[in-house]
Please model this.
Amino acid sequence: MNLIFLGPPGAGKGTQAKVVCKHFNLEHISTGDLLRSVVKSNSLIGEKTREFMNKGLLVPDEIVVEIVAQEIKKNSKGFILDGFPRNLAQSEFLESALSSADIFLNKVFNFITSPEKVVDRLSGRRVCPKCRAIYHIKNMPPLEEGICDKCAGILAQRDDDKEEAIKERLRVYKQLSEPLISYYQEKGILCDVDGDLNVEPLFGIIKEILEI
Ligand SMILES: [Zn+2]
Model:
């Protein structure tokens, strides 16, 4: 079973992907984590990626797709791509990279989330600058307000998680994802799900769809 989870930041894709992967024994591929680990490696592609990142440039679509495709081919399990591809070019590169290895996508879950919900989820997020632990003022508050449970660091809000920045991230997401969503719709593998739901009820729905 090979899946993609698409959706705006704050749609709960990562959390849901963990739950679905555990239940169906799939590999959770989060491009951010994958890029970070490739950059630390001594591989040729790691070196190439590092060059772009050191210059403060975006890693080109071809390279990101190559890294993702390598990771997929390395694994015999099915996978969930969490928040990837991000644009139409990446999805086309990905399809050709995978089809040459006889790997095909089964379903693309499109997390539809209201902007209010996204702002609520992301603007409540607090991170520990020392140990990188993540909290949420409503859903996962630290024992003592503003203080990290693990290392007593002073929690902070990332600039990215401030309301204005969130609205901008949503605008960019919408622009990049529209062609991507039609691309998978035309292939008949797109499945809309309600990203406003909490983890458990949404998992119930996804599980039912996958078990058909
Ligand atoms: Zn901490």
About this structure: The longest strand covers residues 107-112. The chain has one domain: 2-114+164-211.
